[in-house]
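Late entry, written up from scratch paper. The run itself happened at the end of the previous shift, but nothing got recorded in the book at the time, so transcribing now.
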Amino acid sequence: MNRSSYLEQIQQVIARGDFKESWESLQSFDVPDWYKQAKFGIFIHWGLYSIPAFENEWYSRNMYIPGSKAYEHHIEVYGKHTEFGYKDFIPMFTANQFDAKEWATLFKASGARYIMPVAEHHDGFQMYKSDVSFYNAFHMGPGRDLLGEMKQAFEEKHLIFCASSHRAEHCFFMSHGRSFPSDIHKPLTRSDFYWPAEPEPDHHDLFASPPSIEFLEDWLIRTCEIVDLYQPKLIYFDWWIQHAAFKPYLRTFAAYYYNKGKEWGIPVAINYKFDAFMFGTAVPDVERGQFAELQPYYWQTDTAVAKNSWCYTEENVYKSSVDIIRDLIDIVSKNGNLLLNIGPKADGSIPVEDQRILLDIGDWLRRNGEAIYETIHWRISGEGPTTIMEGHFTDHEPKPYTSQDIRFTFKDTTLYAILLVYPQDGRVRITSLRIKSPHFAGIIQMISVLGFEDQVHWQQTPEALYIQSRPMSTLVPVVFKIQLN
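Output as recorded:
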C-alpha cells in the first residue's frame, strides 16, 4: 500500500463530503434508525488468543509479564519466550472448523439484528485480508479472509455487518517482553508484528507517553481500510483512543467514515467509551454495565456471556440466559442497545454453552420481540425496588429482581409492561399506571399477555393498575401488551 496516497485519498473524501474534521461538524451526526430499531447485537472475540484459551483475551500482553499466571502457564505449556513467542501461535490458528454460514444461522436464531466481529484486537493480528500488514488471516494462519466470509454469510441472512478495532492498545500491548529475554526486542519497524511495543503508560494519564505520529497514521490507515474493504454499518472502538494524541485522528476517521456512509447511501455509526469522542458525535458505550435511569441520548452496553473473559477459555464462568434477557429488557427500556459477546474456540466452532444462551434468548425474542424491536422508551423506564448499580464493569453479579420490578417500552399505540420476575399467582400491580398517575392519563383499551391466548382481568384504581393473569411458574420475563385508545 502507498501510505501517502491513501492518506491523501482520506482527505479527498472529507473535502468533498458534508462532514469535516471538527467536533462542531461531527455533531450533525444522527444515530441511524436501523440501529435504534435493532436493539440487540452480537460481539465476537476470536483470534490468536483463542489458541492458548487461558485466563482471557489479554494473553498476548500477560504472557510477557514475569510472575503473572499467563507467564507461568506459557512456560509450562509452550516453553521459554525466546523459543516460542506470541507470533508462534499464528501457524496454529487454522480455523479448520469455521463455517460462516453456520455462525449466521445461529446468530439469526438468537434474534440478534447486527453482528460485530473483532477485526483486529490488541495483539495486532488482523482477521481479514489487509494490504497494510502481512500479519493477517489471509496471508498467514488460516489463509482465509475470515471477515469477508462473515460479511457475506451474515448479509445473506439479513444480519447487519459491523466491525470493531482494538488496535489503539497495540502501541504498548507487547512491551513487557522487552524487560527479559524473549522474542520481542528492539529495534522494531512498522513491518514487525510486535511494533512498536512502547513502554506501557499510566492508563489514567491521557497526556503521558503519546503514541508516535507514525503509529497514529498507521492506526488511521488500518481503520479506514476496514471501512473501504467491508463497508461495516457500525464501527466499535475499544479504550485508549481517549488519549489526547488520538483526538485529531478520531475526528479525521469519523469525518471519513460518515462521509463514506453517505456515499454508500448507508447510515453508519461509531461506538466509543470513556469520552473518547465529543458528546453528540457518536454513540457512547458502557462496558459490562448499564445505567440506573432512562437516558435522553441513545447508548449501548457491551458485555459477554462469560463473566471472566471475552474470548473462549476452558475456565469460562457463564451468566444465565435469563439474567441476560433481563439486562436486555432493562437496557432497551432506558434508550439503549445490548451488544452481547461470545467467544468461539480457536478452530472456529462455537462452544455449546454460548450456543445454548443465544438460542434461549432467541426463543424468548420469538415470543416477545415486539416489545423490544422498533420500540422507543416511554416516559419512565420502569418501576420496582431493585436498584441498578451503574457504570462500567458493574454487571458481574445478577440483579436481585422481584415481581415488583417492571420495565416499559412503547410502540405506536401500545405500551409494553415487562415483568422481570413473574409472580406465580399471576397477580400484577403497576403503580405507574394508576388513576391520576403523573406518568399516565390515557385510556386503556385492552390488555393481553404475549405468547398466550388467555384473557386477563384488569382494574385501574387510584392505587395501581391491577392485572390478574394465568397462575404459572416461569423463570423468564413476561410481557403485558397494553393497547391504548
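Residues 62 and 68 are 7 Å apart (CA to CA).
(Scratch paper discarded after transcription.)
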